[in-house]
Fold this protein.
Amino acid sequence: MSPKTKPKLDRDRVLAEAVVLADGIGIDALTIRRLAEALDSKPMTIYHYVPNKEAIIDGMVDLVFAEIDLPPKDCDWKAAIAQRSRSARSVLSLHPWAASLMESRTNPGPATLTHHNAVLGCFRAAGFSVVMTAHAYALVDAFVYGFALQEASLPATSGAEMDELANNISAQFEDGQYPHLVEMVVEHTMQPGYDFRTEFDFGLALVLDGLEAAASR
């Protein structure tokens, strides 16, 4: 490719670049103009492939769904949903702008629909009723998306950054002012090996165990 030859511009490249840009600057700062600049193009050219920003976000969300593992069919439902949920959390950590948008789109793309259909099918194949499947999917994703949002907003999750944060906050307390908070910081979060992110597996297991018990009733 000569230095003056630009890569072919099409809808897929526009959406892929939009995801990369949002990962770097956030979804609120993503504009057609900034996207065009990143693509070395012009705003009006972008509109040739996608009609507006909402259509771009629709496509971006669909790309994120495409990255998430579908629940495998060769294991029991708890293991399958656990794998899918861990994959979702991992993908959302790469795209911190996405968690709040995953269920907001009124024009879902094929990857989004395929994903939802597969998760629903996993619960139904396990013998969940339609109503229980609705409960289960809502609860699992409330936990997964909620954890992803919380994780993305934390100023620190582990290591030296967490120690520094805990020390700075606790230094503002008078002796005996917040005993339970101090106890948690000293005896748990500042202990070697602490990592807030490990709370995901604990919470996910609790959710799945609870669903299993509820479904059996």
Q: What stands out?
A: The chain has three domains: 1-51, 52-155+197-216, 159-194.
